[in-house]
Amino acid sequence: MSRQNYTFTSESVSEGHPDKVCDRISDAVLDAFLAEEPEARVACETFATTNRVVIGGEVGLSDKDKLHDYMGRIDEITRACIKDIGYEQDKFHHETVEITNLLHEQSAHIAQGVDAAENKDEGAGDQGIMFGYATNETEALMPAPIQYAHAILRRLAEVRKNGTEPSLGPDAKSQLSVIYEHGKPVGVSSIVLSTQHLDAAMTSDDVRAVVEPYIRETLPEGWISADTIWHVNPTGKFVIGGPDGDAGLTGRKIIVDTYGGAAPHGGGAFSGKDPTKVDRSAAYVARYLAKNIVAAEMADRCTVQLSYAIGVAEPQSVYVDTHGTGEVSDAQIETAIREVMDLTPRGIRTKLELNKPIFQRTAAYGHFGRAPEADGGFSWEKTDLVEALKATV
Q1: Quick one: which of 52, 69, 162, 249 is 20 to 30 A from 267 by CA?
Q2: Which one of 11, 15, 19, 122 is the catalytic residue?
Q3: Among 79, 150, 277, 301, which one carries the catalytic annotation?
Q4: Judging by beta carbons within 10 Å of its beta carbon (0-12, 13-18, 19+), is residue 393 exposed, middle or buried?
Q5: For residues 238 and 232, what is the distance between their CA atoms, to the nearest angstrom?
């Protein structure tokens, strides 16, 4: 039997964190290409440091003239992202940052493995393993530590951007150590928050006075007690933030993007990759399946693993672990998954409607545990497979 009483910690980082700036730019480039052509191919990587952003990777459109035109929009897209995040520092400003665009056309050898042909179905964009996870410990069916670590930073971003708290800067990190009793989250033993501030005279105590009310309103009632340990800006001043303070790179926050370490991770990053890349789309469908399994009350917790070979349509394996909480066997659930979901790359993209410009919004505060949106955003968070799954067992 698994442990029932323990403390588990997860962290989140804000949209102004250097790595998240890069994730945002990469996904904004992806969205721009998908808006032009739903079958666009994009693998975009971004690097950011003091006064500089470098963008590289490969892109593809069926119309080569349009591809050239879109290459010319990269500068505009990048500056718009940096402006929206809120960077107007002397050494990282949306108007003055130097942008180098090294994107090039997609390799024909990769394309031939992925594209459908007369004698083959559309294949996976790469080999790899992907995991999805869900747990009934929160309404979003997410692990509590990462869900609330994200929620704190989203709330601070809201009050920063709407002008309520103009002293806060874009760069921030949160960390929650959540106490579990009888397998359920009941409180926090420690709260760690480091946030950039624009007033150099502010002390750590001053920053805590600003952020503490928002943290308290975000966490469930009763989770903060007299024994909760607080560390707010524990190193002191945090005025220089973002890529000027530390270099950023796309895809370097994969645990923050998923389950905060509460579940396995296949190792592949998401941002900047079009949905033929199963690093992204199969991780999304694995979460979709795990969430629907828990929503169907087939288990309290569920991990789903999928594996793929480059150029091959069908997954190499489907694995389910309900961690001893299943109402039916894991093998039965594996069979049910194959019955209710087409797990080919085309099947995933069709079911979840992934060939849309919906990815920029995923770049910060987690790819999972978000509400499905009317335009198709976060479609993998729907629970519309519940009845189909129940009917198979």
Answers
A1: 52
A2: 19
A3: 277
A4: middle
A5: 11
Q: Which residue in this structure is represented by tokens 């009917």? A: 391
Q: In DSSP terms, which residues pair with 132 in a beta bridge?
A: 304
Helix (H, G, I), strand (E, B) or coil at 379: helix
Tokens of 2: 């698994």
The tokens describing 322, both together, are 């309900």
**Regions of the chain where pLDDT drops below 70:** 1, 107-121
Rounded CA separation 156/1 (Å): 39
Check 8, 238, 270, 359 and give the catalytic one: 238
Q: Give the tens place of pLDDT for each residue, 375-386.
A: 999 999 999 999
Are 34 and 356 in contact by the 8 Å Cβ rule? The answer is yes
Burial 136-159 (b: 16+ CB within 10 A, else e): bbbebbbbbbbbbbbbbbbbbbeb
Give me the numbers of helices (H) and strands (E) for the chain, helices first please: 11, 13
Question: Is 66 tagged catalytic?
Answer: no
Question: CB 339: neighbour CB atoms within 10 A?
Answer: 12
Q: In angstroms, rounded to a whole number, what is the distance separating the alpha carbons of residues 357 and 102?
A: 22
Instruction: Give yes or no: 19 in active site.
Output: yes
SS3 state of residue 216:
helix
The DSSP letter of residue 120 is: B
Could you confirm whether 274 is annotated as catalytic?
no
The reply to whether 238 belongs to the active site is yes
Distance CA 266, CA 342 (A): 21
pLDDT at position 116 is 57
Q: What is the DSSP string of 144-200?
A: HHHHHHHHHHHHHHHHHHTTSSTTEEEEEEEEEEEEEETTEEEEEEEEEEEEEES-T
Residue 106 confidence (pLDDT): 78
Rg (CA), the chain: 22
